[in-house]
Structures are given as structure tokens and as C-alpha cells.
Design brief:
The structure is a single chain. The protein has one domain (3-116): Aspartate Aminotransferase, domain 1. It contains four helices and six strands. The chain has helices spanning 3-11, 54-60, 90-106, 110-116, and strands at residues 16-21, 25-30, 33-38, 48-51, 66-68, 79-82. The protein has a six-stranded antiparallel β-sheet with strand order 1-2-3-4-6-5, with helices on one face.
């Protein structure tokens, strides 16, 4: 997945905002809460960071081309960074991005979820 493809995919989700920060990383939020980051890789390939379930975290943490997300996972949060497509296709990555969006939106207040029409 290219940086442009990543940004287009995240942009298509409802109620998202985008900012470039943390060393030129593309940071995507839903209702102001982080759900995906593209960047932070020493190679030419885009590294994509996303929130995941505890089961997915355990499954992906040692998979080739994936690792616990720098900073976020070290704080005990369940975030994975895909550094290459070695064991996760772009289609699978999109599924994980969708799930990250959903997990983060579930953490919003019920009132805000209702106002935004999320998780109804």
C-alpha cells in the first residue's frame, strides 16, 4: 500500500480528520481519537500502525513484517505496526484499519456515537 492509497482509504471513513506530525507521519483520527498512522519506517515501504483486539495483537506481534507499534505498544496498548506486506496483504490491512476505526469509535461517549451515527 502506498502512502497515497493509505490516505485515500482512511479519508473515506466517516468523521475522520488528518494531520501530519511525528516526523512526517500521516495521522488519522475519528472524532479526534487516533485510529491509524502511516509513516515511521526506515525503509521505502510505508509502515502502518493501527489499534487491534488482544487476540489480533498476540497473533500479529511476531508475524513477519509486523511488530508491536513503537511507543503505543510499549505503554500496554494493543497497537500493531505493519512494516511490510510479508505476512499481511493490503486487503487484510484494510480490514485491520476498519477494525481499528471501529474499536476507537466504540471508545467515544455513547452520546457522541449517537450524534455521529456510529455503531448504531
Amino acid at each position: 500500500m502506498t502512502r497515497d492509497e493509505f490516505n485515500a482509504y482512511c479519508r473515506a471513513a466517516a468523521h475522520t480528520s488528518h494531520v501530519v506530525q511525528w516526523g512526517n507521519a500521516d495521522v488519522w483520527k475519528v472524532a479526534g481519537k487516533l485510529f491509524a498512522v502511516g509513516g515511521w519506517n526506515d525503509s521505502q515501504e510505508l509502515a502502518v500502525t493501527f489499534k487491534c483486539s488482544e487476540i489480533a495483537f498476540e497473533m500479529l506481534r511476531d508475524a513477519p513484517g509486523c511488530r508491536p507499534a513503537p511507543y503505543l505498544a510499549s505503554r500496554g496498548m494493543k497497537w500493531i505496526q505493519r512494516t511490510s506486506d510479508e505476512s499481511m496483504s493490503d486487503d487484510d490491512l484494510k480490514d485491520y484499519l476498519d477494525n481499528s476505526y471501529r474499536l476507537v469509535s466504540l471508545g467515544l461517549t455513547k452520546k457522541l456515537q449517537k450524534e455521529l451515527g456510529l455503531n448504531q
